[in-house]
Design goal:
Number of domains: 3
Organism: Actinoplanes xinjiangensis
GO molecular function, one term: flavin adenine dinucleotide binding
Keywords: Thiamine pyrophosphate
Oligomer: single chain
InterPro entries: DHS-like_NAD/FAD-binding_dom (IPR029035), THDP-binding (IPR029061), Thiamin_PyroP_enz_cen_dom (IPR012000), Thiamin_PyroP_enz_TPP-bd_dom (IPR012001), TPP-bd_CS (IPR000399), TPP_enz (IPR045229), TPP_enzyme_TPP-bd (IPR011766)
CATH class of the largest domain: Alpha Beta
Number of strands: 18
Protein name: Benzoylformate decarboxylase
Shape: globular
CATH superfamily of the largest domain: Thiamin diphosphate (ThDP)-binding fold, Pyr/PP domains
Number of helices: 20
Strand content: 15-25%
Largest sheet: 6 strands, parallel
């Protein structure tokens, strides 16, 4: 990333809290601070300008700032650091912090305030920042004395980086930071949590699972955080079990693998329950059951089914429903041990049955994928005048992106078509929103590009979601962050339409009834080309498949950020 301004040289060495805080962050390898400045942090902001090895990534709105930091943390696996302005800045960021909390993003959020001395005065903009942050963070506290500043920074960084990872909050009053601070600056100690259950527990779990005829695996981001993609894949192959991602925003196993069953979704518990209703044995690893908006109140598991759950978060184990065996352990080490124990526990007929399940699943997956791709081709991917479909966009990109490209997916209703043609296959190359907060696609891609400036990064969002954090486009232009963006423009909130149709079917109503007019965003229709240009990002609009190769090649070849608005419907379409 290229800074837009020239930094002054490091000035004096007065050891105020401002300087010591930044020295602590430097000791912990922090390279970027993501923020939007405010008056109650001016001493710290001035000090940042004296640290040439810490770049301040300037955002125009706090929701976008946090999502940019979130993308950076996802792409690096290390805590990102955010600096917000008092209660108003933190308030703007709450929705994005909710997203970071539920996808377990390691992040330290700092917020400035005028000072501890003013607490009794109820001064302008005063609010209890810790109480405001607590519901959307893993840990929240406030510095009240300069000699505890660095201790609390290190504690916050440790908590953020320790599984289950997540955002943490630290209020930093300016009058505390103005004082001299003599604490020693030392790197934060993060505990090694790679523990594995004792062999007897592993062997007992393996025996529970070995006799399964219809096994299912539910996996979440804890698998990705542990680096357990290969271990999960090997266990699934040994067991002959389909894997579903629950609350998963990263690659858990290659989506091209025949045992990958897709994501559970996050709306309706009845849909999630159907995935395990037939299973006589279930392994849950790195997630909880089930992260739905409208969850099923009863147990989703078949009576008598063996349910084994593995997680580094004891709170997640048997959180909502009883399990047969719960084991606190690192997913990578535990899956490795469980695979070995399962191999020993399986009889030869059971081993052959598992292999046969893999063969049958491979045939079914290949047939289903062939049909889906054929259906995509049948919609006229190459037609000059036909309305553009997401499959055409994804198919064209598939032929242009380099192998090491990073995709940040907030396409939502268009994600199935995107991932058919651009299936995720390697860790660190694919990230997506687990849902709950709109507006993560554009800033998330910017954060990932800051983390990996040498790689092509393409972020996808919808025309609804993109409006939540479009200010991030300015950040990309200002800092010359060359991320690319594709806005899937269908003129409204298609996800709301799909969910309302589901709701109507559940109630026995006609799902084809016209949708409320406010599900559409067409009068006026948001013009992303001009919006991007106003933020300093060049853009182009594409309506037909025949124009895609040229437009997408221009986007990818452009030296800097670039946006493509893909018009995926006809005006007036109320699908």
């Amino acid at each position: 990333m290229t800074a837009a301004t020239t930094r002054p040289a490091v000035a004096g060495t007065l050891r105020t809290g401002h300087r010591r805080l930044l020295e602590q962050l430097r000791a912990d390898g922090v390279r970027y601070l993501f923020g939007n400045p405010g008056s109650s942090e001016e001493g710290l902001l001035e000090e940042i300008a004296r640290f040439p090895d810490i770049d301040y990534v300037l955002g125009l709105q706090e929701a976008a700032v946090v999502c940019t930091a979130d993308g950076y943390a996802q792409a690096t696996g290390r805590p990102a650091v955010v600096l917000l302005h008092s209660g108003v800045g933190l308030g703007n960021a709450v929705g994005s912090l909710y997203h970071a909390l539920h996808r377990q993003t390691p992040m330290l959020v700092l917020a400035g305030e005028a000072g501890v001395a003013y607490d009794a005065l109820e001064a302008h903009m005063s609010v209890n920042l810790v109480d405001l942050a607590r519901p959307v963070t893993k840990y929240a506290t406030r510095v009240t004395h300069p000699e505890s500043l660095l201790r609390l920074v290190r504690r916050a960084l440790k908590v953020a980086a320790t599984p289950p990872r997540g955002p943490v909050f630290l209020a930093v009053p300016q009058d505390v930071l103005d004082q001299l601070a003599d604490e020693a600056v030392v790197p934060t100690s993060v505990p090694d949590t790679r523990v594995v259950p004792e062999p007897a527990a592993i062997q007992s779990a393996a025996r529970l699972l070995a006799g399964a005829h219809a096994p299912v695996i539910l996996a979440g981001d804890g698998v990705a955080a542990s680096g357990a993609v290969d271990e999960l894949t090997r266990f699934a192959e040994t067991w002959g079990a389909v894997v579903h991602g629950a609350m998963a925003s990263e690659l858990l196993m290659p989506w091209t693998h025949p045992l990958w069953g897709g994501l559970t979704g996050h709306m309706f518990g009845t849909d999630s329950a159907e995935l395990v209703a037939h299973a006589d044995a279930v392994l849950v690893v790195g997630t909880y059951v089930f992260p739905d908006v409208f969850p099923a109140l009863g147990s989703p598991f078949r009576p008598g089914a063996a349910v084994v759950q593995v997680d580094l978060d004891p709170y997640a184990i048997a959180k909502n429903h009883p399990v047969t065996a719960g084991m606190l352990g690192d997913p990578r080490l535990t899956l490795r041990a469980l695979t070995e124990a399962l191999g020993e526990a399986l009889t030869e007929p059971q081993r052959q049955a598992a292999a046969e399940r893999v063969r049958r699943r491979a045939a079914l997956r290949a047939s289903a994928l062939d049909k889906a791709l054929t259906d995509d081709l049948g919609t006229g991917l190459e037609a000059d005048s036909a309305p553009l479909r997401m499959a055409a966009v994804a198919a064209a990109l598939a032929g242009l992106l380099p192998d090491d490209a990073i995709v940040f997916d907030e396409a939502l209703t268009n994600s199935p078509a995107l991932t058919r043609w651009l299936p995720p296959t390697r860790p660190g190359h694919f990230f997506q929103t687990p849902g709950g907060t709109l507006g993560v696609g554009i800033p998330g891609a910017i954060g990932a590009k800051i983390a990996h400036p040498e790689r092509t990064v393409v972020g996808f969002t919808g025309d609804g979601g993109g409006m939540y954090t479009c200010q991030a486009l300015w950040t990309a232009a200002h800092h010359r962050v060359g991320a690319k963006f594709v806005v899937c423009h269908n003129g409204g909130y298609q996800l709301l339409k799909d969910n309302l149709a589901h709701y109507r079917r559940d109630r026995g109503d006609d799902p084809a009834t016209a949708f409320p007019s406010f599900f559409d965003v067409r009068e006026p229709r948001v013009d992303y080309v001009h919006l991007a240009a106003a933020m300093g990002v060049p853009a182009a609009r594409v309506r037909h498949a025949a124009d895609l190769p040229g437009v997408l090649r221009t986007m990818l070849d452009h030296d800097g950020p670039y946006l493509v608005e893909a018009v995926l419907d006809e005006p007036g379409d109320n699908r």
